[in-house]
Structure formats: structure tokens, C-alpha cells
């Protein structure tokens, strides 16, 4: 049934209001008592801590920082509060790995020690110099609460773990210039060298409501000067956590995190290295409705080029905040996880990025269940039985739409073009019967057939003239019986031609207690949700396939794997703090 335009405007407004999740810097600051409230040596075991997503044993984490590989060791730095489970007292925590799966926790690498970072060490990036020396550029909050950019170098280059870092006395190396907003000047990118030998990097800032990616140049990584113009800008509010990198020989990616909406978007375009000019592809959206890495709870992302493999790859990290209350975070003693690192590539048509969990994560796969060629009739569902627990699992599936003529598919309302996919899915959720779909998975479902709790990951297919429009949604509205939770429905459209795929749509979902991380059509559309079940916990969690559409759907194949937990340990020989 068609919905009038004014109704969809209401849905859009509701979606925008619900999308303003709390974050590291935009949230209301906690009280000093909250920010320093230590959860003790043990956290509350309520079945919600992740098993194979990265998180430290306790306390608050947010942005991934300075990700890199050095002498065969992967380094993950991240924003961390060593004193409690809410934002505050921010330092650069540090963990190392040889496979991006198991991690060793090291002491914090960078923390306030000098006038240029006395009030905090915020986000930044790592750059590998030509001689192989890694250098970190990060935002420090100085004694005047200005955001300034500082550098740090390893104390011992022979240590592959890079345990200790030294901050030169000549910091800060970049300060906000006259007329700039000194409280919105942060998150330097990885630097790159131009044909003239000069280093370049980008810093996020704003001019009133206009977000800016400011370009800076340096000959020696000590003295930096601003370019005459920004690399790019947009009328979207503050740009933070920018990232800029080549995705092939002709195209670059500029990603920014939007402080106002707590979403990220990216553009694909051409970068002229001689003139430092970046021109986004005019055929792609540039702004709030632009392409996203992830249409869910995924923010402050950072990539690095992994050259340790025979075939180098671009790896993406992103932070997933909690969706419960501050009081709940303090009670359980931890807050925040990192998404599974993803390999990023350009789609074959060059119109978007494609993401997929790094292959190493499959080393955690254990026992598995296979389902092949099962028809799911309208209004039916079935359990994928045989797993000891589906609360920690990896599910790969392919669904085939049987009504290829799309006689039963709902018409795509022209009014929906003026709103985003999330607003469409808010109105047409998993329990709203459709023509072709909703169909997909109920994950973290209670053992009563998912009646009390379930999180739906699903597709819905519309017809738009002679074309198909595929919507992918994560609907956690029934995910928990707990009170006081933020349970937004997230969604994105999927670029898939069902006529060419024979009606098939692929889905992979990583399930990890309080994380549901999904990849539609081999990573063209990605959605991460945080959920907090009270019934579907541990071995009581179930996995179902469902079809709430009028048209039948076939599960052509489904493989569900139990996932072992990653090994995250503390360094047995921690060095003495500086």
C-alpha cells in the first residue's frame, strides 16, 4: 500500500532523531565521579561481552587509532579510559597481534605528559617513513583546551611491539591558525608524499556548519603549513576522523565522520597529485545521503595499507558504541567494541566500496551446520538447529526469490526517494508483511521460537518500473526485554541486479553476543547493530530463517559456524612506565 509523502517526512524525522547515538566527544560529558569510577578487577558476566570482536577486559574504548603493521606485527591503538566505563581520561591504549584475531594488550602508548596534550590525547594516525620508521600524529588537548597536532616516535625501533613512544619537545607541530575553531581541529590522517617530495595530511575541522578536510604540507614532518584551500568540504557540520587513500590507480576515497549525525560517509573521486586537487565523482552523492562504509553503529573508522601479505590489502577498522545506558555500562564495567577488521576493495563497476571480514577470522570457525535448497513458504520460519550455541557464530547464506516476475512485490513509492533507507525500514520492519520479503534471519532469538526476543536481519524487494530495488535491514526492535535501550532500525539499499543473479541475494552475519554485524551481497551493504538480549543468551540463543513475505523464498545454501573466542591477553613482561 502506498504511503503519502508527508507521512514519509515524519518517518525521516523520526529516523534522524533516533540516529543521534552518544559518542566519544559529542556526548554529554560524564561527571568526574563517573569518568573515574573504576569497575574493579572483574566485570559483570551477563553474557553480553563479545567473544571474537576486539575489546579490552574492562573500561571505555572508542576510536581506533594509528593502525599499522610493523615488522610482521599488527598494531591497534585506540581511545581508552583507564579509569572507568564512560568517556574521559583519554589515552592511546595499545594492543598487538600477528593475525588480527588474537591480541596481546600492552600498556598505554601515548598519554598526557606535556603542555601540548595535558588535557587529553585524542585520535590520529600512523605513517611509515621511507626508512621504515613509524611516526604517530595525534591530536592533543593543550592547557588552553585547544586541539593541536603532535608527533611521537618509537623509542626502540628494534622492538616489533613498539612498547614505548617518545614525544619531541618541538610539539605541537600543527596548531589552529587565526580565525580557526580551536575546539574543532582534530584527527590527522596518515600522511603521503607528493611528486615534489613534500608530505601531506588532512585534518578535520569546520567553519560554522561547513565541514572541512584541511590539507597541510611539510618537508620534514616537523614544520607544517596549510594549503591555500581545503581538500574538500561539505554542508554537513563538523568533519572528524577523516581518511584519505587511493583505492586503485585512478580513484581515491575521502571518508569523513559526521559529528552531528554520528554517521560516516565517503566519496570516490580523482586526486591530482600535482595540484593537490580532489574532485569527487559527480554521479555519486556527496553529503548526508552519500555512500557509507556501514549503515549501522559504526563510527570513527580508520584504514591502513597492509603490505605484510604477498598481495597487499586495505584494512578497515571501526568503533561500535554501546546502545544501553551509562548506568548499565558502569554496572557491567565496560563499554565499546571494535568491529571485525574488514578488507576494502572497489566494486567491479567502480561505483562503491566493498567490504568483507578479513580471512583470518575464519580460523575461529568450529562445528558447523549446513542447509541446502530449503523452500520457505509465506509466513513460515524454521530453526537452524545443531549448533551448541548460536550466540557466537558466523552465518553465510544465499536466498533465492522465487517470484522472478515480481508479481507480488510491493511498488517502490516515489516518495521514498526523498528519504533514506533507514526511514523506509522503520516503516516496513521485519513484522510488516510484504510481497517479496521481508525474508532473512532471526539471530540471538529466544528458545521459544523467537517470540520473546529476536533480532531480524532481512531483505525486502520492491519493484520500480522494470527494475528491482533491494532493501537490507537490521531490525532489533524485539531484540531485548530490558528497559532503557536504544534500539534503532538500520538499513541500506543493496546494489544487486536480481535478473543477473537468478534472484539470489547473499548474506553473511557475524553474531557475537551483543554484536550483529551483517554483510549484504558480499559486502556491498554492511550494517552493524548492538543488541542486549536477556533471554537469548549463551546456549539459550537460537538461529532461525524466516519469510514474512507473500512470495516463497528458497535458501539455496546456508552454513552456520560456531565461533571460538579470540585470545586477548595481557603482556607478561610489561615495561616500566615512563
Structure notes:
By secondary structure, the protein is mainly β. Among the domains are: 189-289; 365-563, Sandwich (Jelly Rolls). It is built from 5 helices and 38 strands. Strands 26, 28, 29, 30, 31, 32 and 36 form a 7-stranded mixed β-sheet that branches. Strands 21-1-2-3-4-38 form a 6-stranded mixed β-sheet. Strands 9, 10, 11, 12, 13 and 14 form a 6-stranded antiparallel β-sheet that branches. Strand 5 (121-128) and strand 6 (134-141) form a beta hairpin. Helix 1 (5-18) packs across helix 4 (421-427). It is globular and about 70 Å long. The termini are far apart. Mean pLDDT is 91; it is low at 1-42 and 573-578.
Return the CATH architecture of the domain at 365-563: Sandwich
Output the CATH topology of the domain at 365-563: Jelly Rolls
What is the approximate shape?
globular
Helix count from the secondary structure assignment: 5
**Low-pLDDT residue intervals, each spanning 5 or more residues:** 1-42, 573-578
Helix content: under 10%
Mean pLDDT across the residues is: 91
CATH homologous superfamily annotation of the domain at 365-563: Exo-inulinase, domain 1
What is the CATH class designation of the domain at 365-563? Mainly Beta
Signal peptide: 1-26
Keywords: Glycoprotein, Glycosidase, Hydrolase, Signal
GO biological process, one term: carbohydrate metabolic process
Organism: Digitaria exilis
